[in-house]
Write a structure and sequence with these properties.
The protein has helices spanning 5-13, 20-39, 42-58, 69-86, 92-96, 99-107, 116-134, 138-149, 154-161, 165-183. The chain is an all-alpha fold and 190 residues long. It has a domain at 1-89: Rna Polymerase Sigma Factor, Chain: A. Helix 6 (99-107) crosses helix 7 (116-134), helix 7 runs antiparallel to helix 10 and helix 8 packs across helix 10. The radius of gyration is 19 Å and the shape is elongated. It starts with a helix and ends in a 7-residue tail after the last helix.
Length: 190
């Protein structure tokens, strides 16, 4: 388990298929985090991680040793997540009433002893936030997640999404503007 990514890759390419487990163990958590933030769904995130790991395994021979494996597989995972949310046929309205979403909203309440009204309000806010995120295009949503939740630079976002850095910057800007408009009714004036 103490071997570097490059050593593990060399071992896999030399025929030791079990050496790939080192890479899977080392990078799965990061891949899941970004996949979950883009898809908004644990099951989809798990699928994205599996797809990314399989794609990376199949293309391991084309990996350039001078590059960072973590960055390379991260980009693959982002593209898999984009494919996943771009291919969704489920209507946003049907997702809003999903029980998993309501449970997740309750878990995210900051108050340790929330009242029933607080739980209901938090659930409604989470529903509006989720609908707002789903109103973004897959590129805008991914760019927003990568910039504001994963703290990636516009160059990294552009590379992950296969677009120029300026286009990545514009996608983040459009996403922020759309989210502000959709979430404006939630603002409470003090």
């Amino acid at each position: 388990m103490g071997q570097s990514d490059h050593e593990a890759i060399r071992a896999v390419l030399s025929g030791d298929k079990d050496a790939y487990a080192v890479l899977v163990t080392r990078h799965s958590r990061t891949l899941f985090r970004v996949a979950y933030r883009i898809t908004g769904n644990e099951a989809d995130a798990d699928e994205v991680v599996q797809d990314a790991l399989i794609r990376a395994y199949r293309k391991l021979e084309s990996f350039e040793s001078r590059a960072n494996f973590g960055t390379w597989i991260y980009r693959i995972a982002v593209r898999c997540a984009l494919d996943k949310i771009g291919g969704r046929k489920v209507d946003d309205e049907s997702r809003i009433g999903d029980e998993d979403d309501r449970e997740q909203s309750e878990v995210q309440v900051a108050d340790p002893a929330p009242s029933p009204e607080r739980i209901l309000l938090s659930g409604e806010i989470a529903t509006v936030q989720q609908a707002a995120m789903h109103s973004l295009t897959p590129t805008e949503r991914s760019a927003f997640v990568l910039r504001h939740l994963e703290d990636r630079s516009t160059e990294e976002i552009g590379a992950a999404l296969g677009i120029r850095p300026n286009a990545a910057k514009q996608a983040v800007f459009r996403a922020v503007q759309k989210l502000r408009r959709r979430l404006a009714p939630l603002r409470v004036s003090t």
